[in-house]
């Protein structure tokens, strides 16, 4: 049985790891770390766990955690994980970081977009970017996994095969994305109050959102060159879900646009045997409700012959495939388990 | 492996049975019956099941079903189940009816409240009222189970021990209840459109709602006398959840009100070993989000010494403990399985 | 032109006063007081007012306000208004307090329920309870009006005529109420975050909510005796609206329950000429969407002959008739204007 | 006093015309036409109008209407208005059509996108496209105005000045838009039930939505050439609101991108004196809540120097500026009234 510690267990992503692991036959959480609720019963904060989880919240003492558990999930604000790890820790325990600390390979890029100093730049090189379907092999032997962001996972997976195979022009990629409010975290901010969010939508972080360089870096690997994209997130009045609508110009071959069948074949080539990526039937668009609570990414697309562009659309649950679910998927890979263990959750709708 | 047929699989309760049974190790659905979608893929209607359930919808031919399955769930409008069953059917297959056809023992009462003729009154006597925690023993051997209504399950379980033990005066019971919109079904009605329901609450069926006689009959058994209550349902803009707030005058003993400890002891006596009924800690009120997607009923109470009344509060998920979950729980009991099999679902919040 | 100052203009009720007064031909806001946003543009906090209100937020200096305006609205937490007023202030300016400071006539009662010391008990006697339809005559000459609470306004108006005329037994009154989330204010609290409130309902303040003594005191005047009631508020995922569902035992005359016509006649007697109270047609229940943004209270009722009780139901918009609208209505009365001036707002639905 | 008839008064747009005209000093509705509710009280369908509008619904007899009113609003499905008008009608009464019948100048284009035969193609030429801020002069003398679609109004106004002045490359325009659910109408469809829409977002009509050619035609006039764009609408769980996020490549001059100041100046040139178009401050993005219930369009933009693109963002209330409000604005222009009469509605938020 894998012993698990969660730092940041009382945030939405942390609590979702707890929920998922209750259904995992080979792992159990033994440490619910929290900055704000030390000493309080975990189930008093998330009442759904009443009579299911009886533990109290502990602090975020990484040293002690490293002695007691096999893997630590850090579901914390940027900067914390980098400030806690060192060689001794990584020799004792595997770390899956849900923050952005080890997602970008270029420390200057990190410091520019996140506006904080990186406390452990020496581990950036070693850290593996935990986008399971793409980096599965590297994740296997990793000590430190950088779990991708929610917008990022959705944006990358939706476009990846078409960029990798040169079907679309990388310079034309535009990602327009919608997010449920859990993506904004559980901090007490006026902007996230019910009455500020309900019955409205808004773009935010336009041309400056921190998931931009992460998408650019990863898709850039697929393109084989540096990419610069537009990424515009929007806040939508619902609890969970990311929907990415992505636009790119199709590359003509012999003066002709690729057909729907050709594009579909490319997606199938990369995702045909993936359990958690569902390529939707022709003409079907993804809806976030159909992936709710699950680890699925649903992908659809539409070729617009009038404009020569393709519209790619992806949906996932930001707390599951966009955070906790993918983190557990990474854990499964790192510990040599069936990758889907504990994650074959049927979407819950309505 | 128990073979299961669902009539009404494309309604919300029917689809929820399908969802739950995907996690049940001893049962599998082999017949997704539907009136409106015969021949269509089940997953094309509920996209969450894409690549999980590959079956097409079948009709609601009870004769054929009885030959092919071990148990039939009828998640259909009132009247249908009563029109389909007969001795031959019941000799071949167990029937769990999620409609109201066999909930009331008095056929006149049924016809008065539901305003339709009962097509199979001869089976009313035999049918067992499937409120698992109360009627477990009778359910074991039943051929036909009347699965309780969502409001009813919540309303009864919240007050049952206090009525049974004479802690409250049955003549003073008032049940004020709130429901999510899945309770209104999946029919195409203007009244249930998003923009008619969102940003509003309303009472409905005041003093005439059909769950009233069901609550009265069942609590009347506990009281040992006929009961007449007020029951007022309200529609609330959320997908799932029932919250019942119930008021009753406490019975004084030797001129004194019962204490919180005494009331708690009564609840513990009846529910202390129940997995699916969670008596909340002192001062904690139930919230529907904390039972979402699960088979739990959360119960809290507050004694008001100023008025001599007790306020009892219960919450459940109308599609699970209020419909599909309790139906599966009944199936488990009828087939001699662990009662909680497939039902230890962790609440999903947010 | 009446010059108006608002203390607490950046809360939801304060901003609603601003919105309403933009449509008032005889009053204009000249002071937008705020604790948190002094010096910032009011429209930068509530973007709806962009290019409509150009003022910056000022502080809450009551002395200076008293010199500059004709009336001050205090839309602030309990205790502030009482700490600011004195004889000098009240000689210069009329004060309409939206907090609870002057609603209860018994200072001990206030200090018990609100758990703070009252800083100006000498003005309690003078303050007029600003429930316009009931206390219109006293409001005319008041210097200090205690604007009623949102739950309170709805709960009182819904039951008032029937208590006043002895149609119902005051000792049996139970008020079960639902509120939109603006009622919880605009403070940055985790409990009011979108994802904590959305898709859930919960009771709170059970048997201890502070609007209880206010309802009891006012209805007690109608009953001609001290009343003790049960009042249970619930939080519902919508922005605006209060719905009160009230239960009471009907008083029989000559062994007979009053008829619907008799009850209706009583309501008509009190409210027949009121613009802002709409007695709904027989069989129609109020819905909060139909009073949204308006100053209306919609009232319906249903007699249950089976139990001998009546179910009274009232709905209002907590920010308008439950706060800002009633405050402006009080202002109109105090300044001798048409009581409906600026308040004939058509409900906005959906 | 202008006498107004509404055909389709019991749809959301029709009812919103009724709501707006209650605040219009020079117009009154004398005919509430409805296909489904003839003979029923209008206020029994939209309870907010109880005791405000006492009329019963009438049929949609255009002949009779033309004799009784000065202007007819047709808030009906495509095809109806075209089937009702003729020379006799247009000689008697002005017609403002909220459907798409007269929006496209090319009848073949209409029939291709709408898949119905056009019944009155001879009036297409005469009809004026009622985008007030652009076509004000032509609207003045029109007999027949084609009121623009909700997505269209938002999409066009947001990009218009930059296309007109050659700031952006028209061939690169991509419009990604979000809509509240009132945009889907009030028909009883499963897809628009609360539980199908709530807690989810979805794209729809991808590359095929009928507002596409309308945007292309109108912006094409500004560009001075035929335009082909991508337009992707999404359904969002809220009642009202359109948000358009638009992407285009900036045209360099002398190798340099235009500056924010230059772009702002272009917007100011076209909209600086417009009451209903609010150019937001630098760095501020529009939010639909801030235009709720009002006739405003809020516009913001952001230059992304990394990609050389501009992100333009517009927000409006689909029922007001996107339908009923603009229709009334057209009426004001057609009748020589102050264009803003009845429309200076302060946004309502929350």
Main features:
12 helices, globular, seven-stranded mixed sheet, Dihydrodipicolinate Reductase, domain 2, 2 domains, alpha/beta, homotetramer
Task: Describe the structure concisely.
With 350 residues, chain A is of the alpha/beta class.
Structure description:
Chain A has a seven-stranded mixed beta sheet with strand order 8-9-7-10-13-12-11. The first copy, chain A, has a six-stranded parallel beta sheet with strand order 2-1-3-4-6-5, sandwiched between helices. In chain A, strand 12 and strand 13 form a beta hairpin. The two termini of chain A are 34 Å apart. The first copy, chain A, folds into two domains: 125 residues, NAD(P)-binding Rossmann-like Domain (Rossmann fold); 168 residues, 2-Layer Sandwich (Dihydrodipicolinate Reductase, domain 2), CATH 3.30.360. Chain A is globular. Chain A is α/β, with parallel strands linked by helices and 350 residues long. In chain A, 31% of the residues lie in helices and 19% in strands. Chains in contact: A-B, A-C, A-D, B-C, B-D, C-D.
């Amino acid at each position: 049985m894998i012993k698990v510690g969660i730092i940041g267990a009382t945030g939405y992503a942390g609590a979702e790891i707890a929920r998922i692991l209750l259904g995992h036959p080979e792992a159990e959480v033994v440490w619910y770390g929290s900055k704000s609720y030390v000493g309080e019963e975990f189930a008093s904060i998330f009442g759904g766990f009443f009579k299911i989880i009886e533990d109290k919240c502990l602090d975020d003492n990484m040293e002690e955690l490293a002695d007691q558990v096999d893997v630590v999930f850090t579901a914390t604000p940027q900067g914390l994980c980098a400030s806690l790890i060192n060689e001794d820790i990584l020799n004792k325990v595997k770390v899956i970081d849900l923050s952005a600390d080890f997602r970008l390979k270029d420390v200057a890029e990190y410091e520019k977009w996140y506006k904080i100093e990186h406390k452990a730049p020496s581990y950036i090189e070693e850290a593996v970017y935990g986008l399971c379907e793409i980096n599965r092999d590297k994740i296997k032997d990793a000590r430190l996994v950088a779990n991708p962001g929610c917008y990022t996972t959705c944006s990358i997976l939706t476009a990846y095969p078409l960029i990798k195979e040169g079907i679309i022009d990388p310079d034309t990629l535009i990602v327009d994305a919608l997010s449920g409010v859990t993506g904004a975290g559980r901090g007490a901010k006026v902007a996230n109050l019910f009455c500020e969010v309900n019955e409205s939508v808004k773009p935010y972080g336009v041309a400056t959102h921190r998931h931009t360089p992460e998408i650019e870096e990863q898709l850039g690997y697929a393109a084989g060159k540096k990419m610069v994209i537009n990424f515009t997130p929007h806040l939508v009045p619902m609890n969970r879900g990311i929907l990415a609508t992505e636009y790119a110009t199709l590359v003509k071959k012999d003066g002709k646009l690729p057909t729907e069948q050709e594009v579909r074949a490319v997606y199938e080539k990369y995702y045909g045997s993936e359990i958690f990526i569902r390529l939707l039937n022709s003409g079907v668009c993804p809806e976030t409700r159909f992936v709710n609570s699950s680890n699925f990414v649903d992908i659809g697309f539409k070729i617009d012959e009038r404009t020569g562009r393709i519209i790619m659309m992806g949906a996932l649950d930001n707390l599951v495939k966009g955070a906790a679910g993918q983190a557990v998927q990474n854990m499964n890979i790192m510990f040599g388990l069936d990758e889907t263990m504990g994650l074959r959750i049927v979407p819950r709708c309505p």
